[in-house]
Amino acid sequence: MKPVLFEFHLPLIGEVTFPAYFTMLAVAFLVGLWLLERAGRRLRVNPLKLYDLGVLIMIFALFGSRFLHVIADGQFIDYVHLCTDPKKVEVPLGPGGPATERCTTDASCGEGFLCNPENKKCYPPRDCLSVFKVWKGGLVFYGGFLFAAGFAIWYIRRHRLPFWKLGDVFGYILPLGLFLGRTGCLLNGCCYGAPSQSAWSVRYGPWLGPWEDHVKAGLIAQNAPHSLHVHPTQLYSAAINLGIFLVLYFWLYPRKKWDGMVLGAFLLAYSVGRFTVELFRADPRGAVLGLTTSQLISVAMFGVGVWIFARKPGLVTPSAGPPAGPPASDASTEGA
What gap in Å lies between CA 268 and CA 51, rounded to an integer? Predict the structure, then answer.
């Protein structure tokens, strides 16, 4: 895969790198902000309030997605050990890892590693800030969704914005953002699937995707050039979310019979798709009662979607219009 989309050198600045995952997240955020502002003009909502909402949602989503990763993905103890006792962190060999399996000095471990004189194994240096280094990976969508949704509900109520109308807008923005984000996951190698012999399975090189887990499990040698073939679960998720976006944006939104219908449909469709894709994933992500953390949240999300359809929050007013319609000329007033 391609964890770095492109990089180049600039005078006085040096190397400029665009990681695939965070570049796709940035694109998703910009596209989502554009769609939100466009819908706001049609709903006669002050665009400045929507810009603030969009930026703050991104911040809360980033924090929430990292928080759930740390506490639920089964790697919490590694973050603790990196700060308290990094000698307990196991690091397999391979490009980017220690230079030798048995060390005698720090220099023999290679750059970025130290030698443990007790067991002659290399370990990473102490890093108490690793938990905050999101650019190294480790984000969970549901954590970001829960934190961002909680903030968005407060913000929309606080500024007396049209709650369910904006909810429908987020209903088609979210799957498009997820499509772009999961494409970044595919390139980066995170959120990977279980071993598979299917014709569409993929494999990753050293330190990408499942390679490290396969080494630790003894499924491949430490000097293996590739991981085992695995399900491209990122591609499954991307395809599902693209399909949800196309249906909601081009078909359901222009025909919705009540406000909240698009948001409810997204919650139902995404929760079913995510629950299903989880069956094919194999990356560390925590489990309770035989279900992964994301499957449990999917069940709750499905319940919220059912509740919205049962409640039918409000009838559509003429101001809603289709998402492709022309923006309103007065964008300075807030919706009710």
Answer: 27
CB atoms within 10 A of CB 10: 8
Given a cut of 50, the residues of the chain with pLDDT beneath it are: 318-322, 324-336
Largest distance between two CA atoms of the chain: 75
Distance from C-alpha of 204 to C-alpha of 189, rounded to nearest angstrom: 7
Strand 287-288 relative to strand 291-292: parallel, antiparallel, unpaired? antiparallel
User: pTM of the entire structure?
Assistant: 0.80
Amino acid of residue 299: V
3-state secondary structure the chain: CCCEEEEEEECCCEEEEEEHHHHHHHHHHHHHHHHHHHHHHHCCCCHHHHHHHHHHHHHHHHHHHHHHHHHHCCCHHHHHHHHHCHHHCCCCCCCCCCCCCCCCCHHHHCCCCEEECCCCEEECCCCCCHHHCHHHCCCCHHHHHHHHHHHHHHHHHHCCCCHHHHHHHHHHHHHHHHHHHHHHHHHHCCCCECECCCCCCECCCCCCCCHHHHHHCCCCCCCCCCCCCECCHHHHHHHHHHHHHHHHHHHHHHHCCEECHHHHHHHHHHHHHHHHHHCCECCCCCEECCEEHHHHHHHHHHHHHHHHHHHCCEECCCCCCCCCCCCCCCCCCCCC
Convert the pLDDT of each residue in 302-317 to its tens digit: 999 999 999 998 765 5
pLDDT of amino acid 335: 39
pLDDT at 162: 93
CA atoms of 228 and 204, how far apart (whole Å): 8
- Between the alpha carbon of residue 40 and those of residues 25, 66, 170, 175, 327, the distances in Å are 22, 29, 11, 19, 8
Is 334 in contact with 163 (CB distance < 8 Å)? no
